[in-house]
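User: Sequence in, structure out. Go.
Assistant: Echoing your sequence, followed by the structure tokens.
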Amino acid sequence: MTRAVSQEIMLNVENVSLAFGGVKAVTDISFDIRKGEIRAIIGPNGAGKTSMLNVINGFYHPQKGTITFKGKVRRRMRPSEAARSGIARTFQNVALFRGMSTLDNIMSGRSLKMHENFLWQLLYLGPARREEIAHRKKVEEIIDFLEIQHIRRIPAGKLSYGLQKRVELGRALAMEPELLLLDEPMAGMNLEEKEDMSRFILDVNSEFGTTIALIEHDMGVVMDLSDRVVVLDYGRKIADGTPKEVKSNQDVIDAYLGVAHEEAERWTP
């Protein structure tokens, strides 16, 4: 899939290395994410993909290398600071408040946008009331966009896995991110749910102008959605380019042949 994408670099990863004791999660990784693109990060299990996302959103601090976001070099940043700067993410394992409704889960993504002091919010008067009404309007727009009106009052813990993934996407969108990190957004979904999620990801990118970086194991999805793909294996970068370039790269084919021959065959040009 080819779309017009800006050449402006939104995020630049430079020579990043991360280790836990003697275990090297990622080693000397460099790549960039351009404004407005869908950038896939792929590789076999244990390749370091989620660790890389955790470095980008400040959950892990690398021992070496830097992350530059919107022209600002970041060496150590907490996830809350990353969120305030315009980075939101979803997780490999759904991380919702299971006892809270769909509406309230998505509303929690607006917390960084609320500016009235605690006393006003507690009393729910004046500015705090007006602020919450404005935020709820935004949340309702997201619910309509994701076509989940029918579950808006249902607790997240009672939803199917596919719908929970959609609610988690909604919560991330409520933060109005410039860069959205998606960690295996299709995991555990059936074909119909994958098609729906793919459509929403494309719409978020095109309608909201959101830059997206995603980890995904379904190679059909990766090839259909992505503008560019970076491939990791055992914590090292082995390929970087367009989907067409990556799927014909011998190092990539060899890496996938080592874990799933059938999957690699699907890639063979």
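User: And one key feature?
Assistant: Residues 97-175 form one domain.
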